[in-house]
Structure formats: C-alpha cells, structure tokens
Amino acid sequence: MNDKERSYSILKNKLLKIFFRNQPPRPEDMMAQVRMANDTFLHENPVIRPYDSDSYPGGLVLLSHDIDTLIIPDLHGRLGDLLCMLFSQSDTGRNFLEDLLDRNLQIVCVGDGMHCEGHEAQRWNLAYREYLKEYRIHTQMDLEMRESFGLMEMVMELKNSCPGNFHFLKGNHENIKNENGFGNHAFMKYAREGEMVELYVKKFYGSDFLEEYSEFEKNLPLLAAGKNFVVSHAEPASFYSKEMVINYRKYPDVIEGLTWTDDDSSEDGTVRLMIDEYINPSYRERAYYFGGHRAVSQKYSSRSGGKYLQIHNPEKCMMVKIRNDKEIDPDQDVIEITDKDFLEKLYVPIMKK
Hints:
The two termini are 17 Å apart. Helix 1 packs antiparallel against helix 6. The chain has helices spanning 3-20, 27-42, 79-86, 96-101, 121-132, 139-161, 193-204, 207-219, 242-246, 252-259, 270-278, 330-333, 342-352; strands at 60-62, 68-72, 105-109, 166-168, 223-225, 229-232, 288-291, 301-303, 308-310, 318-322, 334-336. Helix content is 41%, strand content 12%.
C-alpha cells in the first residue's frame, strides 16, 4: 500500500466509524477535533481564503478554476448522505473522496450541519420532554447529537485532511450558543432546537467546549466563488463586496444576509450584482449562484431570472457536479444519489479488525 492508498484508507475508516457509532462522540475526542479544525482555519492558504484587515482568514473562498467542484446542500445530520456522495464514482473511475485527497476535486458544502429535520420531527418532540427535565433521561437527544455532531465531526476530518480543497460554509444553524447577534438568530422549528442543543452541550460537553465550538462556527467562511459560479448558504439579501465578505467579522449584516434570507426576500438585482462582483467578465453570462437554506421539493428551484439555483431537498441525496471544462447545465449537473446500500459493504473490513 502506497502513501496515497494509506491516507485514503485511514480517512475512509474514520468516516465510516463515525457513521456506524451508536452514541455521540466522546467529549474529549470532540474537543480535540474542534481544536484541530480551529487551528486549520487559522492557517488557511491566503491565496484560497484572503485574510481580513486583522490578519484572520476572511469570509471568501476563491476556488480553483482548474479542477471539478462538488456543491453539497444542507445536510442537517444526514451522515449517510454525505458518505454516499463521497463514495460515489467520479469521472476518473474512482470515488469523489479519492479525487479530493488527490487534489483533483474541490468540495463546497453550503452549511447547516446541525439539527436533523423532516422525518426526525417527532424525535425533536420526544427530546423536548427530556429537555424539560434537564436531560435526566436523554435517549432521544443522544440520537440527535450522534447525528448532528457526527456529521460535523466528518466535516472536521475532511477539512483537516484537505484544507485547501474542502470548504464548509456557515449556515444559519451554525449557532451552537443559540445567540442573537453577530449575524445570528436563536433557532426553533419543531421544538426549541437551539435551546435544547445549547443545554445538552453545556451539561455533557462543558462550557469550555461550547466556547471552542462557537469559535469554530465563527471561523467558517460565508461565500465561495469559482470560475462560473458563486455559492453561499442563503440567497444574498443585498449586494456585498469582496471587501465586506472578506472582513465579515466586522459586518454582522453580511453574515445575516448570506445565511438567513427568506425566499423572494433578496433585493432586486442582487444575484446579478454578486455574479458581476465575483466572476470574471468572460464567464458571467453563463454563471449561476447556488444556495440552500429553504427546502425545495424538486431537484432545484430557480429565481432571479434563473440565475439563482436553490438545491436543498431534504428528502433526497442531492449534489451539484460542476466540470471545470464545461458550461453548467442545471438539469444535468444537479444529481440525485440513489445507491446507498454499499455503506454496509464498506464497513465489513472494519468489523473484521
């Protein structure tokens, strides 16, 4: 086994062990993972992630124009969906995880790793009863945190392994302290998810961990720009210049405007202005702006004259595959992954060890 094969095997097995683990990560393990991710963020390549005026990596990711890109929509604790994308076969005949490790692929996730949704609505209601009793019993909330923290643990493993090629953008659910301010809003949908997670983390992981994880969320970038596409969690509320996005820590309105915008709430012409700001003139006419945030029921939904493509379908395993040598065709490039049975087969070598 050569070095490339060994690196792939190690990362693959780490991801699979997270997936098949039946409990949330141990506090000490998760703290080590978060600290490593924060260190990775602080040493990002400034060519890829330009630094702000205070010498911190800024909110803008400048993607390579020479390799293919996967855009992954909101995941909300769906560990299996992330693995299905990573282990799907690419044009090279290998899988996307291998291409990522070989630096022949870049991946951009639009954010929202926490808070399972859809079919887990009933579980939130059951977990709420546990929350009201301050988690004296916490069976349902353990299941939630196994998936939410497990998903983010995978994200950190990928970021630490491929810092220049794997990027996870901040979404509105990246707010573990459930704070109002700094571009964030407290969150509730099925129950009081924001409060419930905050209390769980304080009780079982501790206040120091809560602060470290909150720092991780604040280190996440907001916007990625490729050759002929732009990505943020939500449709931009208004126009934000490169200078503003890079210096996002000083502009809470930019954070809010790229993570919280409701459907059809963007100012008229904003998507076109953003494309003009971030895409070279020769590619602007056929460029697209991708986001998630609010759910769609089909492969994608388009607005802003067809230039903004919303790709978050929580009932399907969807991704966007952008070829660096081709124009974007949404009907062909927004892909549904349907083969999920292979995960059990991949786990067999681990069970034998």
